[in-house]
Amino acid sequence: AGVDDRDRVEYHMYKGVPLPSHLDPKDMDDIQDFTVRDDDVFIITYPKSGTAWLQRIVSLLHFGGDVSKTDRKEQDELVPYFEQKVGDSAAFRKLTEVPSPRMMKSHLHFSHAPVQLTQGKGKVIYVARNPKDLAVSYYHFHFMCSTLKTPTSWEQFLQEFVNGEVSRGAWHDHVLGWWKHQDLPNVLFLRYEDLQKNTRKQVEKVAEFLQWPVTPEVIDKVVEESKFQKMATNPNTNKVSGKEAKAGIFDSSKGTFLRKGVAGDWKSHFNDEQSKWFDTFYQEKLGPTGLHFDFQ
Ligand code: A3P
């Protein structure tokens, strides 16, 4: 979608949240009834929080760090996009045939997730990222993803992001919805910035949470193979030639999915005024909740 196509991209409202148009509201209710297995693994995020990174970490842990096994398939086939299948009843039914443990990624709000998951069945790894870096990442992603409205400017995008007028709605609603339930025994709440600072420690946390037996050597391998540079040069993880590119959803001439992979890139986009306004807004939303982020 170019800037001229902006108005042709539509979001569907579902329970007050704008969703990409391929997620039809009439199908979304089905998700709530989805039968969860005890050993299901759902990686849940607001977009651009490190979803693909966790997909890589979880699949590597599953295969004991053996890339000859993880790289037999594109990452998004190994760890499919859960709600993307909902409109396609055959594909959704197929999920019931996937052998355990099913590994899936999702961007669902807590209130839209399978009810069983929110009641403690299955496992949720939620990843949150500081909203400044996230907004920058999401801004760039809007140029390359055809189901999102191409921004007319950074200023305009930022305003829409804060207003929750972007696909998946208000970031703070998403993150707080899950944060409030972070003490559920089946929820592990992680931060992108912690993954950056000490990947190994976070990978160990994930393995322990999933109760998958691993050796220190496996952890080493997972840390190594999930590095940004490795993922950026691997056709199974970099999304340059993958399923979404083939379907015309991702346009690699307009951006790269594995863009920078750093913390603190917000400083090259926010001016002082934007930064102060943004901080005030989110301080009000997050301050009382105890959820903090490292902005570097
Ligand atoms: P940037 O746009 O800031 O580079 P998601 O998978 O949720 O869409 O998130 C994408 C963001 O995570 C992108 O951020 C991407 O570069 C970053 N990312 C993906 N894999 C990563 C890795 N192995 N290490 C660090 N960042 C990674």
Count of the domains: 1
- In what range is the share of β-strand residues? 5-15%
**Which CATH architecture would you pick?**
3-Layer(aba) Sandwich
Order of strands, widest sheet: 4-3-5-6
From the alpha carbons, calculate the radius of gyration and give it in angstroms. 18 Å
Q: Kindly, what is the distance between the CA atoms of the first and last residues, rounded to a whole number of angstroms?
A: 33 Å
Query: What's the CATH H-level homologous superfamily?
Result: P-loop containing nucleotide triphosphate hydrolases
Q: What is the count of DSSP helices, taking H or I runs of 4+ residues?
A: 15
- Number of E-state strands: 6
Spell out which ligands are present.
Answer: adenosine-3'-5'-diphosphate
Overall pLDDT confidence: 95
Largest sheet: 4 strands, parallel
Structural class: alpha/beta
The top-level CATH class is Alpha Beta
Helix content: 40-55%
Low-confidence stretches: none
Task: Describe, in plain words, how this protein is organized in 3D.
- The longest helix is centred in the last third of the chain and has 15 residues, at 272-286.
- With 296 residues, the protein is an alpha/beta fold.
- The protein has helices at residues 25-32, 51-62, 67-70, 75-78, 89-94, 115-118, 131-144, 154-163, 171-179, 192-197, 199-210, 216-225, 228-233, 243-246, 272-286; strands at 11-14, 17-20, 41-45, 103-106, 123-128, 187-191.
- The strands form 2 sheets. Strands 4-3-5-6 form a 4-stranded parallel β-sheet, with helices on both faces. Strands 1-2 form a two-stranded antiparallel ribbon.
- The radius of gyration is 18 Å and the shape is globular.
- The chain has one domain (3-289): Rossmann fold, CATH 3.40.50.
- The model has no long low-confidence stretch (mean pLDDT 95).
- A hairpin with a 2-residue loop joins strand 1 and strand 2 (17-20).
- Helix 11 packs across helix 12 (216-225).
- It contains 15 helices and 6 strands.
- Residues 45, 47-53, 133, 137, 140, 226-228, 231, 258-261, 265 line the site of adenosine-3'-5'-diphosphate (A3P).
